[in-house]
Design goal:
This protein is α/β, with parallel strands linked by helices and about 230 residues long. It has one domain (about 1-150, about 190-234). Helix content is about 40%, strand content about 15%.
């Protein structure tokens, strides 16, 4: 399964003429929390970054996946085979202890499954769980963003809002997007070029992971850093 995953995203790197700047920030020793913008409708650029890091570090960094998928036995096999984690649990702690990177998109589907009226704008609200992880484990935060990620599909609706209206369970979105010759997820994405930028690490410092007021200024700094990368990449 891992071989198929790597092969698929290598092909996508070629299709989207993927490039990455600032990768050296992720090649220094020690685990880091990679924090990125969630493009439409999935984080394509972070999957490609995962492969770029695999080629240099010899392991797949560990994306944080929707908790629902960890509860599904069939999807759990997929998650375990690829080293995904579904939250701050034993799997994450073990990966960090091995010195391996964690990847997270705080905006999640709320950010990624919007209509195409909303492009390249960070939408994290007050989601600060990623900061609690960084503070708990002493991880530097490395901001990441990319041009092209909101140009792969034409989003027609707000997937989270639609799902809530229709009572879709488990907090899953119901998103409608158009690609080449059809609708997502069956349609091939448009061949937009993806240019990714990795920013300089942000040190969390000595802060209580459970003190939301203490985390707010850091949250503003990280969201601002990711937005600046988005604006610069465009």
């Amino acid at each position: 399964m891992q071989r198929a995953w790597i092969g698929w995203w290598r092909a996508r790197q070629r299709y989207h003429r993927y490039s990455v700047e600032g990768l050296e920030h992720l090649l220094t020793p020690g685990p880091k929390l990679i924090v990125g913008y969630h493009g439409k409708p999935i984080a394509h650029d972070l999957c490609m970054l995962q492969i770029a890091l695999y080629d240099r570090l010899g392991y797949l960094p560990h994306p944080v996946f929707h908790a629902y998928f960890g509860q599904n036995p069939a999807l759990r096999r997929f998650i375990d085979a690829l080293g995904f984690v579904t939250g701050d649990g034993e799997d994450m702690a073990e990966a960090i202890a091995r010195g391996e990177h964690i990847m997270v998109t705080p905006g999640g589907t709320r950010e990624g499954c919007r209509s195409s009226r909303h492009r390249y704008r960070v939408r994290w609200g007050q989601r600060m769980g990623y900061l609690r992880v960084a503070a708990k484990y002493g991880l530097p935060i490395v901001p990441v963003a990319a041009r092209g990620t909101d140009d792969l599909y034409l989003g027609l609706n707000d997937g989270d809002r639609t799902a809530r209206r229709l009572g879709v369970p488990a907090g899953l979105p119901l998103w409608v997007g158009l690609g080449l010759v059809g609708a997502w997820p069956l349609a091939v994405p448009f061949p937009a070029r993806i240019r990714q930028v990795v920013g300089a690490p942000i040190e969390v410092g000595d802060v209580d992971p459970d003190d939301r007021e203490a985390l707010r200024p850091l949250h503003a700094r990280v969201t601002g850093a990711v937005q600046a990368l988005l604006d610069g990449a465009r």
